[in-house]
Write a structure and sequence with these properties.
Distance between the termini: 203 Å
Low-confidence stretches: none
Radius of gyration: 61 Å
CATH topology of the domain at 350-461: OB fold (Dihydrolipoamide Acetyltransferase, E2P)
Number of helices: 5
Helix content: under 10%
Oligomer: single chain
CATH class of the domain at 350-461: Mainly Beta
Length: 717
């Protein structure tokens, strides 16, 4: 096979395309056999050196049979172009752009790349390739980073050069890196520059942009003003909102704007040259010199685009065409920076519709979040994720209300299906806006049977069942309306001012264990009808100060066991009507100090058996009128010391049978007027005048010793 004619186009940040007309004596070349194979076209320069156009066959087409030859069309493209046939959806996390590029290069069975990067290449927290080719993803990212690339060819391959500053480019390989201006002399077999053209275009003279980062929630702005001829004439500003998280500070924002300015400025100051010197090479600079001048300082230009037209003389006898080489050069002053414009060789990837994803996290966890309430998700299109905390970066979660330490919080849990939108349509900026039920996650109340029910039901974690939940549910079925509230464990209600409860009919309150009610000030409880309080075991009531109980009618108090009443100070008991104390067994009354009993009218004390009264010191009994003591059997009074009985008027004593008085020593009866002792018909009368009268039927004086009668007059009759 012989190359009859070649059209080749090379351009910064674009893949080269070499379109060659092939001559062959074989009209039956299997077209499929050449696809994907490397081919190299060698071009002989004017000085005998070779220049190579190397690539992979992406198209091979039979054109026609002509003059004994079969003509074919072959298109060569670089190895990177294989990535245009790999479409994917995947997530890159915590990877620099170089690392992401190398990972995608692995999808090619062969790659050849040289890196010349001087600027930092930071790791991207989260970067998404979505419904696009590997090639488009790389182009988008390289353009955003301001990376420049081109290819350098040799006989056995071609190398992808990636740089971030065009100042690192090398000179062409011609002597002294020169291309000589030939002008009209180029037809005299002299190689060099054959034509020139330049341009200047209007550009912006003021660039500004803004962004937003929720971790520094103030609008970030940046601006850059290049030096242009129109800088002081009018304000030609380009202001754009770069979307969320476009730059972290003003310095980075200014750098991005300068990169944008350089890209536009380079496009506005291009030079267009015609050339027939095959040493012209993209990605290299050259000196433009004049053959007749040795004193002028040559201008230096960087080649950014190059189109070749190469013809062979193989069919000279038929086509009368000599071997030829022509090139069209686009170049830039070497001291100017060339930067790719965004989407110059890529398509922006935007996701304006909704997607759903699954919330994921570490094994064994049910809730996985950060301090902002973000969660990790795995998108349904992600076939590489492992359904764990590494499936995505933290994704923010929208809520109905978000303020400074106030608002609503409901963190999506692992396994839930959530709705995801993308800020500004950027697939690298997901945000969760809601959640949906699916077959694995059904609503908490069976539908459609309970379609009238709405509410919130959470789930206890970790390892809870469907029975473990906090909930509030509204039943709106007519006639069965209900508000149902459940606290799976504790419920705490904090009312900082007043609380009012109004219940139209009945209220039932059931407490499984203890209840504590603490009231800081007063409490008023009003029961319109009856109140029944049943206490299964003990009851303790403590009143810090006074207690008043008012009962409109009767009160019945029943204590099945014992009752102890302890009063630290005084007790006053007032009964307006009657009081009856009925004690089935014993009663003990213990008074530490004094006891006073006051009865307005009558008092009756009835003792069924015995009554024992013990007074430690003295006892005084004052009866205003009469005092009667009735003893059914015996009555004994024992006085350890002296006993005194004082009767204001008369004293009467009746003894049914016998009365015995025993005096240890002296017995004295002191009567003021008359003492009379009567036994039947016998009497003994002693008067205050000193007379003694003994009267009886018989009077016997019997003495075991002497009997002596002394008197002034003694009359015995």
């Amino acid at each position: 096979m012989v190359v009859n004619y070649l059209e080749a186009h090379e351009q910064f940040n674009h893949d080269f395309i070499f379109k060659a007309e092939i001559l062959s004596e074989n009209s039956q070349i299997p077209l499929d056999d050449l696809i994907g194979k490397m081919a190299c076209i060698e071009c002989m320069r004017h000085d005998g050196s070779s220049r190579f156009f190397n690539g992979y066959v992406f198209s091979f087409k039979f054109i026609k049979n002509d003059a004994g030859y079969s003509r074919y069309e072959m298109i060569l493209r670089p190895w990177l172009a294989f990535l245009t046939y790999r479409n994917d959806c995947q997530v890159f996390q915590e990877m620099s752009l170089k690392q992401r590029s190398l990972q995608l290069f692995k999808n090619c069975h062969f790659s050849d790349v040289l890196w010349h990067l001087r600027q930092p290449d930071p790791e991207a927290t989260f970067s998404v390739q979505f419904n696009e080719t590997d090639y488009n993803y790389l182009q988008r990212q390289w353009e955003k980073a301001g990376w420049i690339y081109w290819y350098e060819h040799r006989a056995d391959g071609h190398t992808l050069h990636i740089i971030d500053q065009t100042q690192t480019c090398q000179g062409i390989k011609s002597p002294n890196n020169e291309l000589v201006w030939r002008g009209s002399d180029s037809h005299n077999n002299l190689v060099g520059i054959t034509s020139t053209a330049s341009q200047s275009q209007m550009t912006f003279n003021h660039y500004s942009s803004s962004t937003f980062d929720f971790k520094s929630p103030d609008q970030l702005q940046s601006e850059f003003k290049p030096t242009t001829a129109f800088a002081n004439k009018m304000n030609l500003e380009s202001y754009v909102y770069d979307g969320a998280y476009a730059f972290k500070d003003a310095e980075q924002g200014n750098k991005n704007l300068k990169q944008k300015s350089d890209a536009i400025a380079a496009e506005a100051k291009m030079h267009y040259l015609g050339c027939n010197n095959a040493y012209a090479e993209i990605g290299h600079w050259f000196k433009l010199t004049r053959a007749d001048s040795s004193t002028d300082v040559p201008a230096e230009y960087l080649i950014t685009s190059l189109s070749h037209k190469v013809g062979n003389n193989y069919l000279y006898e038929i086509e009368t065409r000599t071997a030829q080489y022509e090139a069209e050069i686009e170049c830039l002053d070497r001291n100017l920076a060339w930067i790719p414009k965004l989407n110059s060789n890529s398509e922006a990837v935007l996701i304006y519709g909704l997607q759903t994803a699954k919330v994921v996290g570490p094994p064994g966890e049910e809730i996985y979040t950060d301090k902002y309430g973000c969660v990790k998700v795995q998108f349904h299109w992600d076939r590489l994720g492992q359904q764990n905390e590494n499936s995505s970066a933290w994704v923010r979660v929208a809520t109905a209300w978000a303020g400074s330490n106030f608002g609503m919080v409901s963190i999506p849990r692992i396994g839930q299906e959530v709705i995801v939108q993308f800020l500004d349509g950027n697939p690298d900026r997901p945000v969760i806006t809601g959640s949906v039920y699916n077959e694995d996650n059904l609503p908490p109340w069976e539908l459609p049977a309970n379609a009238t029910q709405s509410g919130i039901l959470s789930r206890s974690t970790v390892g809870a069942t469907t029975e473990n939940a906090n909930a509030i549910r509204f039943e709106d079925k007519k006639g069965a309306e209900e508000v149902w509230i459940q606290a799976e464990k504790d419920q705490n209600i904090n009312v900082k001012n007043n609380e009012t409860h109004t219940i139209g009919v009945d209220r039932t309150k059931s407490i499984g264990s203890n209840e504590t009610v603490s009231i800081g000030a007063d409490r008023t409880e009003t029961v319109g009808n009856n109140e029944t309080i049943t206490i299964g075991t003990d009851r303790t009531e403590t009143v810090g100060s006074n207690e008043t109980i008012n009962i409109g009618a009767n009160r019945t108090k029943t204590v099945t066991g014992n009752e102890n009443i302890t009063i630290q100070q005084n007790r006053t008991k007032s009964v307006v009507g009657n009081e009856t104390d009925s004690i089935s067994k014993n009663q003990n009354i213990s008074v530490t100090q004094n006891q006073s009993t006051s009865v307005g009218q009558n008092q009756t004390v009835t003792v069924g058996l015995n009554k024992i009264e013990s007074v430690a010191i003295a006892k005084a009994l004052n009866v205003g009128a009469a005092y009667a003591v009735t003893v059914g059997a015996g009555h004994a009074v024992t006085v350890a010391g002296a006993m005194n009985t004082a009767v204001g008027l008369a004293q009467f004593e009746q003894v049914g049978l016998a009365k015995n008085i025993s005096v240890g020593k002296t017995f004295t009866i002191d009567v003021a007027d008359k003492f009379e002792l009567r036994v039947g018909a016998s009497t003994l009368v002693l008067k205050s005048d000193g007379s003694i009268t003994i009267s009886g039927k018989e009077i016997l004086i019997d003495g075991s010793g002497p009997v002596q009668i002394n008197g002034k007059d003694i009359d015995l009759n």
